[in-house]
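Page 42, continued from yesterday. The earlier attempt failed because a stray header line got pasted into the input along with the sequence. Redoing it now with the clean sequence only.
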Amino acid sequence: MRRNYVIIVAGGTGSRMGSGTPKQFLLLDGLPVMMHAIQAFYQSASTPKLIVVIHPSLHDSWRSLCEKHQFVLPHTVVNGGKSRFESVKNGLETIKSMDTELADCVIAVHDAARPLISATLIDKTYEQAALNGAAALATPSTDSVRVKSSDGLENKAFPRWNVYLIQTPQTFNGAILCAAYDQVDEDDGSFTDDASVVEKKGYPITLVDGDTRNLKITFPEDLRIAEVFIVGARS
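This time it went through. C-alpha cells are written below.
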C-alpha cells in the first residue's frame, strides 16, 4: 500500500519582507502563513504524514504559535539546515527513520510560504508522481522572455510558450527523491528546487498544471494579494 509524506520547508528569515518576523510566521487571515499550507495537505485526499522543517532557533516560536492558535494538526518538526538542499535532506532522513520501503512511498516537498495551495492540486501531484516518478506544478509564462548570454553582453528573445514557471509542491517516488539527494550540493546555483536535484540524477519531470493563486509570499504585497484571494474565495 502506498504511503504519502510531505516535507514542508519553512526556513525563511523574512529579510525581503522588511519584517523581523519570518514570512512563514506572518499572519494571513488570522493564522500564520505556514499553518494554511499544513492545513491544505492535512485536508487533502492524499493525507500525507506531515514533516515540517524549521530552523532550530525558531522551534520555540513555532510551539508558541501552535499554542496561541490552538493548532493541533499532527506534524513532526525537524531541524532546518544551512541551505534549502540541506533542509530537505534533513526531512528525508526523518522519513527514512519512519519508513524503510521508500519505493512504496510518495514524498511531496512544499514551500511553507505558499499558503494558498489547494487540496486538488496537491492530490494531482501525488497521482502523477505515483504514475511517473516525479511531478511538479507549473504555470506557463504569460510574459515575453529573453535569455542573456553567459557573459551578459547579449540577449535574445525566447518563445514564451516553451517557458513554464515552477511552483510547489513537487512530488516524487520516495526512492527516486532519496537517491537524488544523495548527490553533493555543489552550491553553484544549479539546484534551484527539488525538480532540478532529481533531474540531475537523470529522472524526467512531469509537469502538472498549477495555479497563479498558488503564489509564494516573498514581498509585503504578496501577503496583501493572498488576503484578496482568500476573501474572494469566501464571497
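Notes: Helices lie at 33-43, 59-68, 84-98, 119-132, 174-180, 194-200, 220-234.
Reminder to self: strip header lines before submitting.
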